[in-house]
Amino acid sequence: MSIKKEKIYPDCPTLIKTVEIGCLTKSQLLNKLQQHSILMNKLGERLFSDDKFTISDTIYSVRTVELKVRDLGFSEGATIPQLFSKANQVGLKLCPLELGPYLRLEYMDQPEGSTNTIIV
User: Fold this and answer.
1) Cα distances (angstroms) measured from residue 81 to each of 50, 78, 86, 91, 119
2) What's the whole-model pTM score?
3) Which residues, at least 6 apart from 67, have a Cβ–Cβ distance to it below 8 Å?
4) Nearest to residue 26, comparing CAs of 54, 46, 61?
5) Total domain count for the chain?
6) What are phi and psi of 89, to 5 degrees?
7) pLDDT band at residue 6 using 50, 70 and 90 as cut-offs
């Protein structure tokens, strides 16, 4: 019987994507989501109506790294503070809040309820 050592970031499979964001108003971004039949729950609606949710008036690129929670060393799961702390330790940073809607537009075939990956 052999025990296989888990591969931890950065020595694990990842999906790296560059997403261009910015330059749309909140209304334009909402319209774009609606045009693609992307529905929002109450939390999404609250996010868009919050003054803290700001949109850049210039286009810029964000490089994302998609990986599994276990790829950060948490084979049994972790809390959000644990994930954020570990991600920071390995050189990953939190994405700007405005990335969320743009990233959703990038993943038009996203399975509903997908919870096995994180984007940092």
Assistant:
1) 23, 8, 9, 15, 15
2) 0.79
3) 9, 12, 13, 14, 15, 117, 118, 120
4) 54
5) 1
6) -60, -35
7) confident
Tens of pLDDT, residue by residue over 31-55, are 999 999 998 899 999 999 999 999 9
Residue 103: closest CA among 39, 33, 24, 54: 33
Q: What pLDDT, on a 0 to 100 scale, did the predictor assign at position 111?
A: 64
Q: At residue 67, what is the residue type?
A: L
Tally of CB atoms within 10 A around 55: 19
Q: Could you give the 3-state DSSP secondary structure of residue 110? A: coil
Is residue 64 in some structural domain? yes
Angle between helices 42-49 and 26-35 (to 10 degrees): 150
- Whether residue 2 lies inside any domain: the answer is no
